[in-house]
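Sequence, structure tokens reproduced for absentees:
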Amino acid sequence: MLLIDGKKTSEEIKSEIGASVAQIKEKGGKSPHLAAILVGNDGASQTYVGAKVKACEQVGFESTLVRLEETVTEEELLKVVEGINQNDEIDGLIVQLPLPKHISVEKVTNKIKPEKDVDGFTPANVGRMTLGWPAYVAATPYGIVELLKRYNIDTAGKHCVVIGRSHIVGSPMSILMARNEYPGNCTVTLTHSRTQNLSEITKTADILIVAIGKPEFVTADMVKEGATVIDVGIHRIADASKKSGFKLIGDVKFDEVAAKVAAITPVPGGVGPMTIASLLYNTLLAAEGKVYSK
């Protein structure tokens, strides 16, 4: 069984990005600059944004963190986004989700300039990705594609089953795995909460990508012998035996599934670290103008 190590791979990617930044500086260019907007005091969001800021420092990026109160109005937030859109010193912009209920995620996402949308969430980037044009691909799907590539997982002609149809992971993943390039050229089945006979479908998967948001949902009897399993889920579960008082698990029951498959990502240390590495890579592309110049 091959353990697909996202932590190790993400460090390799960050090292490559850091080398690119050093070359940019040697030629007299400026460091790539990522801005993040954080609304409110959600603990998980603060942790995620903090990790992104730290990763920027690690690779030599500039970073700006804009903190706004939970009570900020939609209009005020949109003005902040537009200000960053117009700031030529900033290459990439992310707005950390979730947002307070009184703010439209659609309006805020649509306000972000596509050339700075390093999260890959705007209609322009989703559309370009769907058409196979140069685009900023959402960080988690891009991270999964990069893992498959760097671990030389054969995808051509394989049956890929995706569990979960979110706009952030499942839907773009299904498009990327079906495209006419590597990794890709799969026959893809996109499953979701209304899919009937789900386990019968998953048992036919050569590549199973699980992004359903349910702890240990996928068990060994749902998986084909010798399959590749990518677990996108992450859940914090109480565990008195741990010093922290909790443990992290995924959407896949790791121990029993790992014994049956050819390759699998762990949780933690699988897809998660790749998301931040992919975000940094998109920001580097934005700084170099390599997406929207084509």
User: Anything to note?
Assistant: The chain has a mean pLDDT of 96.
